[in-house]
Amino acid sequence: MKDETKCLHSGYKPENGGPGVMPIYQSTTFRFNSTQEIAAVFDDPTKAHIYSRFTNPTVDCVEKKIADLEGGVAAMCTTSGQAASLISILNLASAGDRVLSTSAIYGGTVNLFAVTMKKFGITVDFIDVDATEEEIQKMITPKTKAIFGETLTNPSLQILDIEKFANIAHKNGIPLIIDNTFATPILCKPIEFGADIVIHSTTKYMDGHALQVGGVIVDSGKFNYANGNFPDFTEPDESYHGTIYVKDYPNCPYIIKARAQLMRDFGCYPSGMSGFLLNLGLETLALRMERYCENGLKLAKFFENHPKIESINYPNLENDKYYKLAQKYLPKGTSGVMSITIKGGKQEAIKFMDKLKLASKEVHVADIRTCVLHPASATHRQLTDEQLINCGINPGMVRVSVGLENIEDIIKDFEQALS
Ligand SMILES: *Cc1c(COP(=O)(O)O)cnc(C)c1O
After folding, report:
1. Which residue among 248, 280, 312 closes a domain?
2. How far apart are CA 154 and CA 5, in angstroms?
3. Predicted confidence (pLDDT) per residue in 46-72, tens digit
4. Domain range enclosing 276
5. Ligand 1 pocket list (CB less than 6 A)
6. What letter would DSSP give residue 226?
7. What percentage of residues in the chain have a pLDDT greater than 70?
């Protein structure tokens, strides 16, 4: 099936005479006829649903749909994108280990990696998105357990050369984790370029309507965790009846381990209702992404030619530094997100934002409605000036997320605010 069809038909499969629309299983627990049957599910968590702290039939359908869209073998939803980032790393690294991440990533992820992970004893090293293979290789130590990056960086809109990072990761026997939030599987499928694990903040385009915060982790099923670097996958898990993940679940040991160990212990799992709402967003994802890209390009061209705009980052513009990589990794378009720098710096940027009438000022992005944000005073506020620059952010930068309103109305609003 093609993406448009998967958006509607993957995941939930109605049974004969069953509901045509995916039902909401809003239940914490599931009943069994005998103690023995419950014991069997504890032995093999893939057999049935037992408790909604780590599995739920509604969420399960959504996980199958997202895995299918990304070209992965299994997925696990989380209650936020932050939870997905956290678990994607903790499933591979423990105290004493290291992770290599590109520095141009979402501000919340920078903080999680640089501050909170450090308290767990995990050191995250940062490298420039545009680093050469030699520079990347130099940053990898025998303790490095994964490489992490974003397809389309938030908010600097740089494009990661996924193949380059995947090749180096694989040469070192470690997986590549890609945060594919802005691209969505409609615009880019990182697994096709060698990524081993794909994560999302589903809060953004996937949900699409600003209804709820959520996340997901997708397992490509391709990485060999039995290569000697990941003893937690090859030795019996004493906390789970001696399960050996690579042996007992050879198709998707990564996601089973994440669920059986980490989701069981952390419990950041969405409810049936949340799964239902996310699925509703996913049903129109392919259609919406097409229009975001179309509106995005039109608005970007307007900004590019406007005398009050100092610079714009939108990789689908021919003059953009990342245009060539965009053509390779996101040939259908680069979403509706762009960042602009207003002439006159921070004060002018804030003045411009406050004059907007249609575009809303809010801490959100990739929404159905056009919205703007000033990263230096909001999402990236906790970063030092040096971290800001490493993330590709200057103080006068405004992140613009174009919505699905008529593009003429959107441009008119930006035009009057700039005037
Ligand atoms: C928003 C965002 C996150 C964090 O997701 P939440 O759902 O807000 O926890 C992670 N990565 C990227 C690229 C994001 O845009």
Report:
1. 280
2. 28
3. 889 999 999 999 999 999 999 999 999
4. 3-280
5. 80-82, 106, 108-109, 150, 154, 179, 181, 201, 203-204, 213, 215
6. T
7. 100
Euclidean distance between CA atoms 217 and 72, whole angstroms: 10
Q: Exposed/middle/buried for 32, CB within 10 Å: 0-12, 13-18, 19+?
A: middle
Structure tokens at 397: 């930068």
- Whether residue 407 sits in one domain with residue 342: yes
**Mean pLDDT calculated for residue range 224-243:** 95
Q: Is the whole-model pTM more than 0.90?
A: yes
| Residue from 201, 160, 158, 161 nearest 181 by CA | 201
Mutate-to-test residue for ligand 1 from 89, 154, 177, highest number of ligand atoms within 8 A of CB:
154
Alpha carbon distances (Å) from 411 to 49, 296, 372, 405: 49, 11, 13, 10
Atom 12 in ligand 1: residue holding the nearest Cα: 106
Distance between CA atoms of 312 and 303, rounded to whole angstroms? 7
Domain closes at, from 226, 249, 280: 280
